[in-house]
Amino acid sequence: MDANKLLSRHGAGEKDFSGAILHQANLKNTDLSGINLCAADLSGADLSGAKLRGCNLSRANLTDADLSGADLSGANLSEINLIGAELINAKLERANLQKADLRSANLVNANMHEANLTEAELSGADLTKANLNYANLSNSNINEADICNVDLTKSNITNQDINQTQHPTGIPHRWVSWAGSH
Length: 182
Description:
By secondary structure, the chain is largely without helices or strands. It has one domain (1-182): 3 Solenoid (Pectate Lyase C-like), CATH 2.160.20. It is built from one helix and two strands; from the N terminus they run H-E-E. It has one helix spanning 3-11, and strands spanning 160-161, 174-175. Strands 1-2 form a two-stranded antiparallel ribbon. Residues 169-182 have low confidence and may be disordered.
């Protein structure tokens, strides 16, 4: 399926595009809020500036996709593949990223307020200046991630080992739990 066909069918009211193959599709600045793209292949797609509020992208492949400035608030992104994806300034408030693969993703200045990142894979990700307040990062892997200037206010960061991360000085080398603190 190409991007134009998806947009035409979506414009006619269709919402279920689970399993769609949209490799390298140009969906820049489109409004796809509430769409079901479960298990879809959007690898290399341009979704920068797209509105994807409340959509279902669980188990979708967005490897190397551009989601810079995209609004994914309240989206189901569980078990999504976002390896190497660009998520600069993305809005991910209250998004479900449980077991998401965000290795080497660029999340600079992303807003992940109240996001569920339980068991997420964030190794090598750039989280510089990301907002993770009230987020749940329990049992996620942030090994070799850049967490400089990250807002972790009231976040649950249970069982985090930051020995291999880039982080500000003064943070303990072993986070047992910061849930409810700071």
